TrEMBL record, chain A:
The chain crosses the membrane at residues 15-37, 273-291, 311-329, 361-381, 431-452. One of its GO terms (biological process) is lipoprotein localization to outer membrane. One of its GO terms (cellular component) is plasma membrane protein complex. Belongs to the ABC-4 integral membrane protein family. LolC/E subfamily. Pfam families: FtsX. It is found in: Cell membrane. It comes from the Bacteria. It is a multi-pass membrane protein. Keywords: Cell membrane, Membrane, Transmembrane, Transmembrane helix. Residues 273-389 form the ABC3 transporter permease C-terminal domain. This is Putative ABC transport system permease protein. It comes from Bradyrhizobium yuanmingense.
TrEMBL record, chain B:
GO terms for biological process: lipoprotein localization to outer membrane. Its main location: membrane. It is found in: Cell membrane. Belongs to the ABC-4 integral membrane protein family. LolC/E subfamily. PANTHER family: LIPOPROTEIN-RELEASING SYSTEM TRANSMEMBRANE PROTEIN LOLE (PTHR30489). The keyword Transmembrane helix applies. The chain crosses the membrane at residues 6-25, 46-75, 95-113. It comes from the Bacteria. It is a multi-pass membrane protein. This is FtsX-like permease family protein. Keywords: Cell membrane, Membrane, Transmembrane, Transmembrane helix.
TrEMBL record, chain C:
Keywords: ATP-binding, Cell inner membrane, Cell membrane, Membrane, Nucleotide-binding, Translocase, Transport. It comes from Bradyrhizobium yuanmingense. Involved in beta-(1-->2)glucan export. Transmembrane domains (TMD) form a pore in the inner membrane and the ATP-binding domain (NBD) is responsible for energy generation. InterPro entries: AAA+_ATPase, ABC_transporter-like_ATP-bd, ABC_transporter-like_CS, MacB-like_ATP-bd, P-loop_NTPase. This is Putative ABC transport system ATP-binding protein.
C-alpha cells in the first residue's frame, strides 16, 4: 500500500468521531430524500397496481332509478371500455353492543358472480351465496374495528325496514380505499362500513328490480372523460341522474390522491432543503478539516509531491467520508422508506404493496453530497496548495490583534482574560465565526421546518373543531327533506340545538376554468357549523350571492364583485349566473357558501335540508343514539366529536390531539 | 413522518455542532496548549473554547428561527392544494424545541471537548508540528 | 574549482507584514561548488533559513537570480519546481516536519516512493542509527530522534544537494557527531553537495567552506584547506 494511503487510513481512524459526524450529516440529507421519494413512489405504484388489477373505474354516476336497458346505450358512448351498473344506497346500521349510530354504503354485487369494475379483493371468506338473502361482504377496516369475522351478525335499516345480516366475507375495494362517512371529516371505521350484498336482494329491498342506481365506467385509453361525462349526464338525466364525475371527484380517490399529493409535496420540499443544508454543512466542515492539514500539505509539497497527487489524497479522504455517509443514509433511508410505506399501506388497507426501486434517487442524493464535499475540500486545498511550501509549513503567521474598542476603555478591567481571548478570537476570524454560526442557524432552521407541520395541523384542528364545525353530530338524510324536519329533530332526546344545512352539487365556471363543487346553505349567523376565515373571525353570510373559498377564487380568477356561472346539478338543473360577494380564506376543500334562504331561492324550491347539525347534551347521548336509530329516513349520522377522539392515523404521537392533527397531512 | 424528519434533522444538527466544536479545538490546540504551559488552568482554557461555542450557538438561534420560518413558508406554499391548505403557524414551543436540540448537541459536544482538553498532551502538541 | 551547483546573483527576499518590511536576504551573491560541504553560520534572524528555503525550491526570492547548475530556479513554474525538489533536493527542516500519523519507516518511505533511485528506507534509517525505532510514531520519539528520521528521509533519495537546517540543534554531542558523520558519509560516497545551517561554531571545522551571515548578507566567507573528520569535533 502507498504510504499516503496508510496516512489516509490512520487519519480516518484518528478522526473517527469527526468522520462519523460529517458522515451523519451527509447521511441525514441522503436519508430524507431516499425515504421521501422512495415511500411516495412505492405508494403511488401500489395504488396504480391496485387500481389496475382490480379494475378501478374512471367515471361514476348516480341515478334515482335507471332501467337496466340503458346499459347498452351507455356502452355505445364513444370511449367507454367497460360498464358496471349497480345499486348503491346509504343506510343506518344497528350493531349489537355498539350504541353509537353507524351507517354504511350498501353496494350490490352482480349475481352472476362476475364483476367487471371495482372488483373486490377478498381478504377472507366468500361472496354471498345465491338465494341467501342475509349474506353480505363487508370492508376490512369496519370488520377489524369491531373484531368481526365470518359469521358475525349485525342489522341494517334498508328502505325503512330492519334486516338481519351475516358476514360471509371480508374484502377490500379500490373504490373504497379511503372511507369517510357522509358529514364526517375523517374516517371512523367503527361507524362507517361498506357492505356488499346480492344485487337481487338489494334491488328487492329498494324496489329497483330491473333498474340500477349507480354506474361505473372504464374508459378506453385516450378517451375524453369530459365527453363521456356529458353524454352520460344526458342519458341519465330522465332517470334522476346526478352529475357524473371522474375519479377526481370520487371521494376515496380524491382523498387518496390528496394524501399522496401531500406526501409528494413533502418529498419535494423537505428533502431538498435537508440535502442542500447538509451539503452546505459538509462543505463548511470539510473546508476546515482540510485546512487543518495545511502544514502537512506544505511538507508533502516540499518533499516533491505534485499538487495533483496531494489533491487526490485529500479527495480520497473526503470521498471516504461521503461514501460512508451515502451508504449509511441510503440504508437508513431505504429502511425508513419501507417502514413508512408499510405504515401508510396499512392505513389505506392496500391489499398488497409494491416497493418501487429508485436508483436515480440514490444517484441524485449521492452525487449532490459528493459534489458538495468535493467542492469543500477543493476550496481548502486551493488556498493551501498555492502557497509556497516554506510558507505552508509554518503555522499561519501570528494574527495582528487590534485593540478592541478604544484604548481608554480598558476591557481587561471589565472582563477576564479568557473572555477577552474568546472575544478577540471571534473578532479575528469573522468569516469563520460567521460560517460557524450560519451552520448552527441552519441546524435550527431544519428542525423548525420539520416541526412546524405539527403546529399548523394543530391550528387547523383547533379552527375546525373549536371554531368552525362546532356541532356534536350531523344527521344526514337519504333524500332531501322539508325544512320542518329541523323542528322534529330538535325535539329528539338530548338535542340542545339544531341547525338546517343544505348541500347542492354544482359545476362552477368562470371563463374556461371549471370545477365541480358543493354549495352549502346555512343560516346567515350559523351558530354550530360556522364559516371561519383565516383571521379566525366567523363569517356572516350576506343575504344574497355566493361566498367561495379563497383557493377557488384563485383557481377561477375571480374576486368579490365578479360573477360566475353555476350549473345546478340537482332539481331543475338550471344554469345560472351568480355574483361572488365574498371570498373566505378557509383550509378545507374548495366550496361555495350561501345563506340558506338565498340558496332555496336560487334552487326555486321550498325550504329543504339535506342534513341537520346538532349540539348534544353530553349526558344524554345514549338516548339520542337510540332515538335517531329509529328514524327511518336517516341516511347517516356523523359524530364529529366521537370520530375526532377515536380516529387513528399513521402518526408519530400517541396523544389524541396529535393524532388528529395528522388527519390529512401524513405526518 | 414528521417525527422521522425531525429525527434526521436532529442527527444533522448534532453532526454540525459537534464538528464545529471539534474543529475549533483542533484549530487552536497549539494556542491552548501554550496557555496551559503558561499556567492557565484547565478550566480557564476550557472556558475560552466553550464560551466561544456557547456565544456562537446562541447568536445563531434567532437567524435560525427566521430561516426556519422562511423554509416553513416555502413548504406551506408547496403544500397548498384544492382539498386542504394549511396556515403557517409556528408555535413558540417549536422554536424552543429546535433550539433545545441544538443546545443539547452543543452541551454534549462541550462534554467531549472537555474530556479532550483533559487529555490534551501538552508536550506532544508543542513538540510535533502537525 | 569545479562548476558551482548553486549560483546566486543579487538574491533578495523581502517579507512584508503590515507596515514593516524585513529584508531577510539583501542582494546576496554566492557560488556553491559541486560536492562541497558548506556551513552557514550567523545570528538568529540573519536569513539563513530563508536562503536555504529558496535553494530548496520551497520559496521564491523577491528579486535576483538563483541557478541550480544551469537551471534558473527563479523562472520555474510550480510544477517544474516540484520536479526539481523531487529529483534533486534532500531537505532537513529546522522543525523536523514529520507526518505524525506515519511511523519513522513510513515517513522515509514517503520520499523513497516518489524518488528515482532511492535507498531502502530501512537502510536510510540504519545510517542514522534508528533501525531499532523504525516502527515508532514521531510522538514516541525524542526531538533528536525525530531529527534523525528527518535526516534519513532527506538522504534516502540520494539527492544531488542536501540542505539541512540546524540538523544537530536538538542533539547531544555524541548523537550530533553521528548525524554529522552520516551527512559527511553521504557526501563522500555520493558526492552530494551539502549545505548545513548551524549555531554550533565547531561544526565549521568539517566544512569546505563557511558562510557567515549577518542582516541578510554574507558578511564573510572562509574556506577550509583541510576538512576535519566528524569524530574530531568537540562541543
Ligand atoms: N513568513 C515571514 N514573514 C515575515 N518575516 C519573516 C518570515 N519568515 C522569516 N521572516 C523574517 O526574515 C528574517 C530571516 O528569517 P530566517 O528564518 O531566514 O532567519 P534564520 O537566520 O534562519 O534564524 P534562526 O537562526 O533563528 O533560525 C527574520 O527577521 C524573520 O523574522
Ligand atoms: Mg532558521
Amino acid at each position: 500500500m502507498k504510504v499516503l494511503d496508510i496516512k489516509l487510513l490512520r487519519d480516518v481512524r484518528r478522526l473517527w468521531a469527526q468522520v462519523l459526524a460529517v458522515a451523519l450529516v451527509v447521511g441525514g440529507g441522503v436519508a430524507t430524500l431516499v425515504l421521501a421519494v422512495g415511500s411516495h413512489r412505492s405508494l403511488e405504484e401500489t395504488r396504480i397496481a391496485y387500481y389496475e388489477r382490480y379494475g378501478f373505474a374512471d367515471v361514476f354516476a348516480q341515478a334515482k332509478r335507471a332501467p337496466k336497458a340503458l346499459t347498452d346505450r351507455i356502452g355505445e358512448i364513444p370511449g367507454v371500455a367497460a360498464i358496471d351498473t349497480r345499486i348503491a344506497k346509504p343506510a343506518l346500521l344497528d350493531i349489537p353492543g355498539f350504541s353509537a349510530p353507524a351507517s354504511a354504503q350498501f353496494v350490490s354485487l352482480a349475481d352472476t358472480g362476475e364483476q367487471h369494475l371495482n372488483r373486490l379483493y377478498m381478504r377472507s371468506g366468500r361472496f354471498p351465496a345465491p338465494g341467501r338473502t342475509e349474506e353480505v361482504v363487508v370492508n376490512e377496516p369496519f370488520a377489524r374495528a369491531h373484531g368481526f369475522v365470518e359469521g358475525a351478525r349485525f342489522s341494517a335499516i334498508l328502505n325503512g325496514r330492519k334486516r338481519e345480516l351475516v358476514i360471509v366475507g371480508i374484502a377490500l375495494s379500490p373504490e373504497f380505499v379511503y372511507t369517510v362517512g357522509p358529514g364526517d371529516l375523517m374516517p371512523d371505521d367503527r361507524r362507517y362500513a361498506i357492505v356488499w350484498m346480492s344485487e337481487k336482494v338489494l334491488s328487492a329491498a329498494y324496489d329497483l328490480d330491473g333498474a340500477f342506481s349507480a354506474v361505473a365506467v372504464k374508459l378506453q385509453p385516450g378517451a375524453s372523460e369530459r365527453d363521456v361525462v356529458r353524454r352520460l349526464d344526458a342519458l341519465l338525466d330522465p332517470y334522476g341522474g346526478q352529475a357524473a364525475h371522474g375519479r377526481k371527484d370520487q371521494t376515496s380517490h380524491a382523498w387518496l390522491d390528496h394524501e399522496l399529493d401531500m406526501l409528494n409535496n413533502m418529498s419535494r420540499t423537505l428533502p431538498p432543503i435537508f440535502l442542500l443544508v447538509a451539503a452546505f454543512l459538509v462543505n463548511l466542515t470539510l473546508t476546515r478539516l482540510v485546512a487543518l492539514e495545511r502544514e502537512q500539505i506544505g511538507l508533502l509539497k516540499a518533499l516533491g509531491y505534485s499538487d495533483g497527487s496531494i489533491v487526490l489524497h485529500y479527495f480520497k479522504f473526503v470521498a471516504f467520508i461521503v461514501v460512508v455517509g451515502i451508504v449509511l443514509g441510503g440504508i437508513v433511508g431505504t429502511w425508513l422508506g419501507l417502514h413508512v410505506t408499510a405504515l401508510f399501506g396499512d392505513f389505506f388497507h392496500f391489499p398488497f404493496l409494491v416497493f418501487a426501486k429508485a436508483p436515480d434517487v440514490y444517484l441524485t442524493a449521492g452525487a449532490l453530497s459528493a459534489a458538495a464535499a468535493a467542492i469543500g475540500a477543493f476550496r481548502a486545498l486551493r488556498e493551501v496548495v498555492k502557497l509556497p511550501p516554506a510558507v505552508a509549513m509554518q503555522a499561519p503567521a501570528p494574527p495582528v490583534y487590534r485593540r478592541l474598542l478604544s484604548a481608554r476603555i480598558q476591557l481587561d478591567r471589565i472582563v477576564s482574560q479568557p473572555t477577552l481571548m474568546m472575544i478577540r478570537n471571534i473578532a479575528r476570524h469573522p468569516v469563520r465565526a460567521f460560517f460557524t454560526a450560519l451552520g448552527m442557524a441552519l441546524a435550527t432552521a431544519i428542525l423548525v421546518v420539520s416541526l412546524f407541520t405539527r403546529d399548523s395541523m394543530e391550528h387547523l384542528t383547533d379552527v375546525t373543531y373549536f371554531l368552525a364545525d362546532r356541532q356534536d353530530a350531523t344527521i344526514g338524510f337519504a333524500e332531501k327533506r322539508i325544512a320542518n324536519v329541523v323542528e322534529q329533530v330538535s325535539r329528539l332526546p338530548g338535542v340542545l340545538a339544531a341547525e338546517p344545512f343544505r348541500e347542492v352539487p354544482v359545476r362552477i365556471r368562470h371563463g374556461n376554468v371549471e370545477r365541480r363543487i358543493v354549495i352549502s346553505g346555512r343560516p346567515a349567523a350559523a351558530h354550530l357549523r360556522r364559516i371561519i376565515d383565516v383571521e379566525l373571525r366567523p363569517v356572516i353570510l350576506p343575504e344574497t350571492g355566493l361566498a367561495i373559498s379563497g383557493m377557488l377564487a384563485h383557481i377561477l380568477g375571480v374576486g368579490p364583485g365578479d360573477s360566475v356561472e353555476v350549473d345546478l346539478l340537482e332539481g331543475a338543473r338550471r344554469s345560472v349566473t351568480v355574483p361572488v360577494v365574498a371570498t373566505v380564506e378557509d383550509y378545507f376543500g374548495i366550496r361555495g357558501m350561501m345563506e340558506i334562504e338565498a340558496l332555496h331561492k336560487l334552487m326555486r324550491e321550498a325550504p329543504v335540508v339535506t342534513s341537520v347539525n346538532l349540539s348534544l347534551d353530553e349526558n344524554r347521548t345514549e338516548d339520542f343514539y337510540t332515538a335517531v336509530k329509529s328514524i327511518p329516513t336517516v341516511g347517516g349520522v356523523a359524530l364529529q366529536r366521537v370520530s375526532w377522539r377515536t380516529s387513528a392515523r399513521p402518526s408519530r404521537c400517541s396523544s389524541p390531539r396529535w393524532r388528529v392533527s395528522t388527519r390529512a397531512l401524513p405526518a | 413522518m414528521a417525527s422521522i424528519y425531525t429525527g434526521l434533522a436532529g442527527v444533522i444538527a448534532f453532526g454540525v455542532v459537534y464538528n464545529n466544536a471539534r474543529i475549533s479545538l483542533s484549530e487552536r490546540a497549539r494556542e491552548l496548549a501554550s496557555l496551559r504551559v503558561l499556567g492557565f488552568t484547565r478550566g480557564e482554557v476550557l472556558r475560552i473554547l466553550l464560551l466561544e461555542l456557547a456565544i456562537l450557538t446562541l447568536i445563531a438561534q434567532p437567524p435560525g428561527w427566521l430561516m426556519g420560518y422562511g423554509l416553513a413558508w416555502v413548504m406551506k406554499t408547496n403544500l397548498a392544494g384544492e382539498l386542504m391548505r394549511v396556515r403557517l403557524v409556528v408555535e413558540h414551543s417549536t422554536y424552543v424545541i429546535a433550539t433545545s436540540v441544538v443546545v443539547l448537541a452543543a452541551i454534549v459536544s462541550a462534554a467531549v471537548i472537555r474530556e479532550r482538553i483533559d487529555r490534551l498532551d501538552l508536550v506532544a502538541v508543542l513538540k510535533t508540528r502537525d | 574549482m569545479s562548476v558551482p551547483v548553486f549560483t546566486a546573483k543579487a538574491l533578495t527576499k523581502i517579507y512584508v507584514s503590515g507596515e514593516v518590511m524585513v529584508h531577510a536576504l539583501n542582494e546576496v551573491d554566492l557560488d556553491i561548488p559541486e560536492k562541497e560541504v558548506v556551513v552557514l553560520l550567523g545570528p538568529s534572524g540573519s536569513g539563513k533559513t530563508t536562503l536555504l528555503n529558496i535553494m530548496g525550491g520551497l520559496d521564491r526570492p523577491t528579486s535576483g537570480r538563483l541557478f541550480f547548475r544551469d537551471l534558473d530556479l527563479t523562472d520555474l513554474e510550480d510544477r517544474e519546481l516540484t520536479k526539481y525538489r523531487r529529483d534533486h533536493v534532500g531537505f532537513v527542516f529546522q522543525f523536523y516536519n514529520l507526518v505524525p500519523s506515519l511511523t519513522a519507516y513510513e515517513n522515509v518511505a514517503l520520499v523513497t516512493e516518489v524518488a528515482k533511485n532511492p535507498m531502502r528506507p530501512a537502510d536510510a534509517l540504519a545510517l542514522v542509527g534508528l533501525e531499532a525505532r523504525m516502527h515508532h510514531f514521531p510522538a514516541q520519539l525524542s526531538g533528536g530522534e525525530q531529527q534523525r528520521v528527518a535526516i534519513a528521509r532527506a538522504i534516502a533519495k540520494r539527492p544531488a544537494v542536501l540542505l539541512c537546517d540546524e540538523p544537530t540543534g536538538a542533539l547531544d554531542s555524541k548523537t550530533g557527531i553521528r548525524v554529522i558523520e552520516a551527512l559527511l558519509g553521504v557526501n563522500r560516497q555520493l558526492g552530494t553537495t551539502t549545505v548545513i545551517i548551524t549555531h554550533n561554531a565547531s561544526i565549521q571545522e568539517v566544512a569546505d567552506r563557511v558562510l557567515f551571515f549577518a542582516d541578510g548578507r554574507i558578511s564573510r566567507i572562509r574556506t577550509n584547506e583541510a576538512r576535519r573528520e566528524a569524530a574530531e569535533l568537540t562541543w
